[in-house]
Each structure stands twice: as structure tokens, then as C-alpha cells.
Amino acid sequence: MEIDGKVAIVTGGSSGIGLETIKLLKKEGATVYFTGRNIEKVNKAEKELRCRGFVSDVRNSKEIKRVVDEVLKRQGRIDTLINNAGVYYDGQFAEETEAQTREMLETNLLGAMNFTKAVLPQMLKQEKGSIVNVGSIVSYGKNPGIATYSATKYGLRGFTYALRNELKGKNISVSLVNPVGTKTDLFRHSKKRGRGLLLQQAVVPAKAVLHAIKTGKAEINLAPVRAYELLSLLRRLAKR
Ligand SMILES: NC(=O)c1ccc[n+]([C@@H]2O[C@H](COP(=O)([O-])OP(=O)(O)OC[C@H]3O[C@@H](n4cnc5c(N)ncnc54)[C@H](OP(=O)(O)O)[C@@H]3O)[C@@H](O)[C@H]2O)c1
User: Hey, where are the domains in the chain?
Assistant: First the structure.
């Protein structure tokens, strides 16, 4: 799908990969709306990006509906949805709080599913649309210390492929972009803060998101899957 002149919603657009994606979308001529939870961050991003942001939590279906209704009122259409909002907690699963487990599942997986549910009727009516889910290369790993986060990203991969097949012939593409370690605020709660491999700038996965919209490709991995699986195995062996 061409991006020029299109209407896009980016969830979690107030920082990191979402923010960089919005910059690129705007550069290519899209009208972009975004969401975030933190009002200061949303206000700051609105000024920087010069586009409308909503303080809206993807865990809340009523708030999702408010955003979708408002965009439709202003634009009459939604061409692309980028399900990017995400949170990350690591550590031993037995020590993870129920609130952390819930927050990851409800944001990273259920939030993306519910936002998709809210825009799909419009895309079906338009007989055109593009949905891009921001997953993670960890959906090919078996990494200890991120059981719930991995579950959300494995889940998002399954959701993407199943929905993609369900929508075949409807002119609506569903794609998955799997970033590798990226320098953003995502790891601010990490117990291993500052460690690990933060390899990429946020603009790299952002470019992949635009590529997914343009080509409708099923999946874009920001690292070769086989190499990642091997790295994941070597890390597990090193821990023994
Ligand atoms: N950074 C990496 O290494 C990496 C690797 C693979 C995949 N990813 C994925 O990339 C996506 C973007 O993450 P990022 O790295 O750019 O991190 P980030 O800078 O922390 O951005 C996350 C965004 O999501 C928003 N958000 C979080 N919970 C939300 C909720 N319940 N409702 C609405 N917005 C919410 C945040 O807004 P608030 O701050 O206001 O909550 C923020 O705008 C995530 O899905 C993440 O899992 C990142």
C-alpha cells in the first residue's frame, strides 16, 4: 500500500520505535494519530511530531473505541494500524507479580488484538487496509527470564498469521515486524538494566514497519531467525 495520503494510527507512539515510525510515516505523506499512556510524553511527542496524540490505554476497550471514533469522525477512514504499544518486565517467572504478568499480556497481546478488532469493521467496509504488529525476535527464542514477555510475542505471531489467512482476498494485509534489541525506554524496569545486546537505533525497526505497510509482507525479522535461535541456545548453554 502506498503511504502518501493515508490515515494511520500508531499505538505507543510517544517514544521509541513508535515515535520513529510516525516521523517516517509523516515524511511519506501520511496523516498520523497516536496513543500513549503518559500525558507528559504524549504532549511532548505531539509538539515534536506535529500530530494528534491521545492519552489512551490499549488495555481499555472504551479508550480504544474513543480513539477510533475520533479518527473516523475527522478522517472518515483508517488505512493502517500499527500495533506497537508494549511493556517489558524480566526476571524469574515465580517472582513476577501478577500485575506485571497481566500488564504485559493485556498490553502487548490483548491490546493489539482489541485495537485490531476496533478498526477491522472500517477496513472491511473500505475493502482496504494494512495492520502491522510489532512483535519481537524473542518469539523465536526460548529465553529464561522473559517467560511472560515471550508468551506475548509468540502469541502476537500466531495472531498475525491466523488473522492474515482469515483476511485473504479482502485486500487487508496483516504483517509482523520482529525487532531485535533496540535502544529505547522499553527496558527501564529491567532487572538487568543496561546489559544485553541493544544493537539498533529505533529508526531501523521503524523503517521495517513502513516496508511492511508498502509490501504487505507477512513477516520482517530484523535478524536472521536461525542465527538468533543459535544465539539463544548458546546463551542457555553458557548458563549451565
Ligand atoms: N526495544 C527493543 O529492544 C524491542 C525489541 C523487540 C520488540 N520491541 C517492541 O517494540 C514495541 C515498542 O517498544 P519500544 O522499544 O519503542 O519501547 P518504548 O520506548 O518504551 O515505547 C513503548 C510505547 O508503548 C506505550 N505504551 C505502553 N503501554 C501502553 C498501554 N497500555 N497503552 C498505550 N500505550 C502504551 C508507551 O507509552 P507510555 O510510556 O505512556 O506508557 C510508549 O509510547 C513494543 O511492542 C516492544 O515490545 C522492542
Answer: 7-238
Q: How far apart are CA 96 and CA 116, in angstroms?
A: 28
Question: What global pTM score does this model have?
Answer: 0.97
CA distance 164 to 176: 10
pLDDT in tens, 81-94: 999 999 999 999 99
DSSP 10: E
For residue 41, the ligand 1 atom closest to its alpha carbon is: 40
* 194 pLDDT tier (thresholds 50, 70, 90): very low
H/E/C letters for each residue in 67-124? HHHHHHHHHCCCCEEEECCCCCCCCCHHHCCHHHHHHHHHHHHHHHHHHHHHHHHHHH
Q: Whose CA is nearest to atom 29 of ligand 1?
A: 85
Q: Which of 149, 186, 219 to mutate to test the pocket of ligand 1 (most atoms within 8 A of CB)?
A: 186
Q: Is the CB of 18 under 6 A from ligand 1?
A: yes
**In the prediction, which pLDDT does 193 show?**
57
Closest by CA position to 119, among listed 182, 197, 180, 35: 35
Q: How far apart are CA 189 and CA 206, in angstroms?
A: 23
pLDDT in tens, 113-138: 999 999 999 999 999 999 999 999 99
The per-residue DSSP string of 29-73 comes to T-EEEEEES-HHHHHHHHHHHTS-EEE--TT-HHHHHHHHHHHHH
Fold held by 7-238: Rossmann fold (3.40.50)
In this structure, what C-alpha cell is assigned to residue 217?
Answer: 509482507
